[in-house]
Structure prediction request, 471 residues.
Amino acid sequence: MDAKIFFGSKEAVKEEWIEIKAPYTNEVVSRYPKCNGEDAKKALKIAKEAFKESRKSLLSQRVKWLEDVIQKLKSQREDFAKTITNEVGKPIQFSLIEVDRCIETISLSISAAIEEAGETFNSDAMPSGRKTISFYKRVPVGVVVAITPFNFPLNLVAHKIAPALVAGNSVVLKPTPEAPLTAYKFAKLFIESPFAIKDALSVVYGDAEVGSALVTSDIPRVISFTGSVPVGNIITKSAGIKKVSLELGGNAATFIERSADLKNAAAKCAIGSFYNSGQVCISLQRIYVDEKVYDEFAKYLVNETKKLKIGDPYDKDTFLGPLINEDAVKRAKNWVDSAVKEGAKVLLGNKAEGKIFYPTIMGDVTDDMKIVCEEVFAPIVSLVKVKDFDEAIEKINNSPYGLQYSIFTNDLNLTKRAIEEFECGGVVINDIPTLRFDIQPYGGVKLSGIGREGPKFALEEFTEIKSIVIC
Prediction:
C-alpha cells in the first residue's frame, strides 16, 4: 500500500516514490512519495490557515474527534500491528502492545484537555495593585511541527499529534522515513473522521531538506522532535524564536546493589536490555554491579537472556527480531569489536544472522570504553563492577545523557539517595530504566532533551498562557 501526502485534508502524490522493505523478509511492504522543501512550505501554509478554524473549535468537537479515532484504531488493531512489524521489524506481540498504548495515549490526551484549566490571581496582593477580576487561561499555540522516529512509529506520533490537536492547534507531521505507511494510516483516521477540523493535520515525508524547511519557517510556534542528539542540536540552532521540545538520546543505567533480589533483577534487566532489539532511548545499556555479587548476577543475566526467543517477528512468541537495517547491524558489531580490543569480554552473543543481532552481554567493561560512553541503540548491554553505591552513582552520572536511571536494592537509604542524586529526568526503583508509562512526565536532562512528553505535560508545550484582567 502507498503512503500519500496529506496537504491538509487532501491527498497528493509525487512522481518519485521511495520503497520500504521489511527488515526481516526484505520484501517491499510500502512506499512513499519523495517530498521536498516546497512541499513542507505548502503544508505549513495550509496549517496556518487551518488554525484560524481550529482555535475557534469547541473542545467537545475535538474530544469526539479523538474518541472517533480511538474506536477506529480498536477495530483495526491487528492491521496496524502488522503494518508496524512489516515496516520496522518489531515483533508482533510488541506491535500489538504499541497499538494498545497508542489508544491509551489518545485517551489520556482527551482527559488532559478536559481537565486543563487556568487560575485566578490576586491583582491587589501588592500596594501598587488594585481589585480586578484577574485570571489566566491556556490557549493553543498555533501550528505545531511534529517529527517522529522509527522505533515507536505509531505511539510516538500519538504522543505529539493527539495532545496538539485536542488543544486546538493545527499540525504538520513528518514521520520517520522507515515507517511512512504506519503514519499515513494513522493520520487518515484523523483526517477522515466526521468530527475532523478541516486541514488541521498535514503529513509530509523526507529527511534533511523537508525537516529544515519545517524547522526554519516562521509559521510554526512549536517544534516537537524525537530523535538523535546531532539532529536535535541542528534544530535548536536553526529554529529561531519558537518553542522547541526535544526528546533525544539516552544511555540508561542501573545499579545492582548487594541486597537486591538478583534473580528478579537479572530477569528484568534481560528485558530492559534487549526489548525492541535495544532500539529504545531508555534501553538498558549500562549495568553497574556491586563487586560482591557481580559474578552471581552476571551468571543470572546470561541465563535469563538465553530464554529469550529470537527470530521471526511475525511469530507471536518472538521477543527479539531484526534491527532496522544492515547499517545498524554493522554498527552493533563495531561496538562490540571495539570494546573487545579495549579489554572487554563477550559473555554472550556477538552473533549476527541477516539483520538480527543476537543479545550481547559484555563483561569487564571500564568507564573509558566507547561502548558505555555513547548511545549504542542495539541489543548490547555492558556490565561494570563497582565497590559500592558511591562509585556507581559517580559513574552513572558521568554521562552527557540523562534520560532515565534505576536501582535494584532493598536499602531504603540508598533508594532515597538515588532519587535525589541521579542526574536524569526519571528514576525507577527496583525495575529497569526502560520502564515508561504513557501517563508520566517523560523526558531528560543534559543532552537527553528539553521539555516533557506524556499528554498532560505535552499540553503545556502545545499551549500558551494568556492572562486576562477585567477592571
About this structure: The chain has two domains: 5-249+446-470, 252-400+404-429. Residues 252-400+404-429 form a domain with the Aldehyde Dehydrogenase; Chain A, domain 2 fold (CATH 3.40.309.10). The first strand starts at residue 5 and ends at 7.
